Amino acid sequence: MRRCAAALLGQRARRRWLHLIVGGALFMPFWMVGTVVVGMLLGEGGLFTGSLGLQFGAYAVGLPLVAVAALFPLARPMSVATARALCGLPADTLADGPARGREAKARTAGWLTLHLGAGALISGASLALPPFAMSVLALPFSAALRESELGRLWGLDHPWWTWAAVPAGILMLLALAAVAAATGALLARQAPRLLGPSPADRLAAAERRAAEAESRNRLARELHDSVGHALSAVTLQAGAARRVLDGGDGADLEFVREALTAIEETTRRTVGELDWVLGLLRRGDRSEEGPGPGPGLDALEALVRGAGPKVALTVSGDLAPVPEALSREAYRIVQEGLTNAARHAGGEPVTVRLDARTEKVEITMENPLPARPPVARPNGGHGLRGVAERARLLGGTADAGPADGVWRLAVRIPR
Q1: Model confidence at 250, in pLDDT bands (50, 70, 90)?
Q2: Domain boundaries, given as residue ranges, for the chain
Q3: What is the pLDDT of the chain when averaged over all its residues?
Q4: Residue 312 in contact with residue 338, Cβ under 8 Å?
Q5: Is the pLDDT of residue 57 over 50?
Q6: Are 169 and 136 in contact (CB under 8 A)?
Q7: Which residue has the higher pLDDT, 415 or 228?
Q8: pLDDT of 295-315, one tens digit each?
Q9: Could you tell me if 20 and 184 are in contact, meaning their C-beta atoms sit under 8 angstroms apart?
């Protein structure tokens, strides 16, 4: 009994009934246009005073107009929002955005016609049937009703039949609730089929997810290269300064001063780069300007200087004609190469060669292999993978590994 009552008048049933009433309200303008058209054909007038044929004729004319209105871009988003809110459907079963393609537009037209058409009938019954049922219920208790047209229609020649009006009125109300619940359940079952994503919608969603994943990967690379390099360089410089100071009275204070200066420059530069990376996260807010360009090859000397005295830089060719995007990515590649060397080279000298004399920008970084292999990081590293991704996105190549007694990172990127 409780389950039956919940199916007819529970929260879900009430929300779906409301969904149908919303459809009936949306159908009213189309029905009014149909009333004018059919009234002109039949020679009848009045929206609510016409014959039953006029009312249903207007209903028949309004349904095709609903199907035409469903072709407008706003039709599917509005229908999806209403169905999600009132039909209790999972969000992923319905499509987002306007319908794309003939098939999706046809399904949207089918849904809107079904929703507004069924909603008009249920709304009309919800307005007309409850007052009639309540009047039938009151027949045994009201002499005025028994003497009215309703009483004569009900047939009061038999007194015992008068009390049959009570269960009849209750059954009318229950029948209305049952029809509304069944119609709401029908629409809920048809919604995923008629408003669900089409192949074009799934492709667009997959492209959005791919773009979001690429954006996250880009931010991860920027943070890894910028912050990771800064921490490695600061750790290296601070460790070198500490070892010099531990040497006693003969400590090379000039070396310590240079190390502290390098730490200061590195942290100041990294704060600026971090602001730039965080600005990428705010780029979606149109009220703020996007971040300016990140560091490029013009900042390469400062980067190498901050990496310590054992890093030597050689530049061949003019860097000014290098495109801005390539300049930024080349800077990040050198930055990650220096970070990798600081972690794994064991303090060995590092040489950085950048050749921009040909149609390709070539970056080569080498350091002697340490006597003892470096200790592997617990979770591995992603720096060299990020270098390969940057090079691949620009149509270039990246190779890294031991060769001829040195560790070599070689990157070639076309201009």
Answers
A1: low
A2: 2-197, 216-414
A3: 81
A4: no
A5: yes
A6: yes
A7: 415
A8: 788 888 888 877 777 888 999
A9: yes
Please check whether residue 108 is in contact with residue 195, taking contact to mean a CB–CB distance below 8 angstroms.
yes
Residue 116 has a pLDDT of 96
Q: How confident is the model at residue 150 (pLDDT cuts 50, 70, 90)?
A: low
The predicted model scores a pTM of 0.55
Residue 94 predicted with pLDDT over 50: yes
Order of strands across the sheet that contains 350-355: 311-316, 350-355, 360-368, 406-414, 397-403
415/394 Cα distance (integer angstroms): 9
Rounded Cα–Cα distance for residues 198 and 270 (Å): 46
Looking at residue 291, its pLDDT comes to: 45
Q: What tokens appear for 50 in the block? A: 């016409």
Question: HEC string of the chain?
Answer: CHHHHHHHHCHHHHHHHHHHHHHHHHHHHHHHHHHHHHHHHHCCCCCCCCCHHHHHHHHHHHHHHHHHHCCCCCHHHHHHHHHHHHHCCCHHHCCCCCCCCHHHHHHHHHHHHHHHHHHHHHHHHHHHHHHHHHHHHCHHHCHHHHCCHHHHHHCCCCHHHHCCHHHHHHHHHHHHHHHHHHHHHHHHHHHHHHHCCCHHHHHHHHHHHHHHHHHHHHHHHHHHHHHHHHHHHHHHHHHHHHHHHCCCCCCCHHHHHHHHHHHHHHHHHHHHHHHHHHHHHCCCCCCCCCCCCCCCHHHHHHHHHHCCCCEEEEEECCCCCCCHHHHHHHHHHHHHHHHHHHHHCCCCCEEEEEECCCCEEEEEEEEECCCCCCCCCCCCCCHHHHHHHHHHHCCCEEEEEEECCEEEEEEEEEC
CATH of domain 216-414: 3.30.565.10
Residues linked to residue 400 through DSSP beta bridges, in sequence order:
409
Q: Supply 94's token pair.
A: 């319905």
| pLDDT surpasses 60 at 292 | no
